[in-house]
Each structure stands twice: as structure tokens, then as C-alpha cells.
Amino acid sequence: MPANYAFVDDITIPDNTTLATGTPFVKTWRLRNTGDVAWGDGFTLRFSDGDAMTATHSQKLPACEPGEAVDVTVELTAPLTPGTYRSNWYLHDDEGRAFGEYPVYAIIQSQPASEFQGRPDGRFVLDFTIPDDTVIPVGSAFEKTWAVRNTGNVPWRDGFHLVHVTGNPMTDNFQVALPHTPVGGVALVTVNMKAPTTPGMTYGNWRFKDANGRLFGGIVHVRISARVVEGSGHNDSTHVADL
User: Fold this and answer.
1) Which of 12, 164, 189, 209 is 20 to 30 A away from residue 69, measured at CA?
2) Cα 68-91-79 angle, rounded to 5 deg
3) Which residues are registered as beta bridge partners of 45?
4) Model-level pTM?
């Protein structure tokens, strides 16, 4: 079977998402390689027709073996003229031939900023450092980093924070600024923490907060096992997850 793919899911920007005119956003599709050809060098995603919403009309596809699924992302911007816009994209093999029965696409509603009702949202993606139940020596400092996604319809800008809400904060800094993140984008958020001096399981819950002080989105948490570690004082079991 030649190169082929199947659509799996819209990871970001469901069809007909409403965005303010001029808003940058990240569209991500999850696709499965249903052919018998691995996607490698020379395999590209190319704009086909409709409204490009970007000046970049071609980009490299992620490597993907037959049977595997991969996330494919384009960075777009809602047009300045209000209306409904559709951007169609086809996958191409290393000889420039399009494959797949249908294109992948993004459909959005672009609305004047003066009429736009923004809805901030955010979700946990993965633990970039300190997975749940990591052993940390009592009293030891560590960096907790989460990967989080902007799942709302407004970018995260100045004034957006991640704030501690319940449990043990394990830090004196109860809020940290969120990186500027477009709609659909993923950001890394780090908090410098310290394990309690008393051994045991400890957790802390954090949430997103917008520039008006309103909480939004899901919980992100940290959960560690503070232990007395003999010897070097270092925690050899701490490890980092891949993004």
C-alpha cells in the first residue's frame, strides 16, 4: 500500500471555533500512518486551497512509522475581516505526490474584537519533570515543570498566571506567570519548590488565572514522596518525562 493516513482527532481548535480577528492560533491534528511507507525526509504538509491564514504554505511532516499516530501542527492567524474561514492541507510524500483521500483542515469563525466574547481555558498535558510519586529527600529543593495547553479561544498574555489553590504549595511563591501562549499552543510552566522536612506523601493543586483574577481551566498538580535518603542526599530516582 502506498503512503496513506487516517484522521484521528482535532487536538486543538475544534471546527467552528470562534476567535477574535487577528488572533494567532495553533491547529493540531492527530493522524495515523495507515500506509506501509514510513514518513521521513521529504514528507511534507502543504496548503491546498481555501484560506491559508499563514504565509508558510509547506512544512516538514514529523517522522511516523506505519501504524503509528503523530500530531501535525500548523501556526495560523484569524483573518482581520470577520467571517468563516477554512484552510485545507494535504500530505505529500518524498516525491511530491499528495496522498490521503481528503485534506486535513481548520475551520474557524473570525469575529470583530469589539464583539468577541473571550473564553480562557487551559489543560494539563504532561509532567515535564517530577512525575507523580517521585521520591525527593526531605527538605530538598526541586523544580516542578508542567506542560500545559491553551484550550480556550484567547491567547495567554500579561497577567495570566498559574496559582496554588489547595494542598501544600511547597513554595513561598503562590503564583507564577504563564508564558505568552497562542490559542492551541503548549507552554512549559515551572515552579521552584522544596520538599517538606517531614517524610510522607505530599501534594499541591494549582489552577490557571486570567488577567482579571478569575480562575479557569483544569487542575494541575504535583505529588511527591518526601523521604529520608541516606548517603549522598541526592534523589537518584527523580527523572524527567519527555514532552
Assistant:
1) 189
2) 115
3) 59, 91
4) 0.87
* Residue 25 to residue 191: CA distance in whole angstroms: 26
Residue pair 185/150 in contact (Cβ under 8 Å)? The answer is yes
d(CA 79, CA 76): 9
Q: Are 238 and 135 in contact (CB under 8 A)?
A: yes
In tens digits, the chain (243 residues) has pLDDT values of 699 999 999 999 999 999 999 999 999 999 999 999 999 999 999 999 999 999 999 999 999 999 999 999 999 999 999 999 999 999 999 999 999 999 999 999 999 999 999 999 999 999 999 999 999 999 999 999 999 999 999 999 999 999 999 999 999 999 999 999 999 999 999 999 999 999 999 999 999 999 999 999 999 999 999 999 876 444 444 333 344
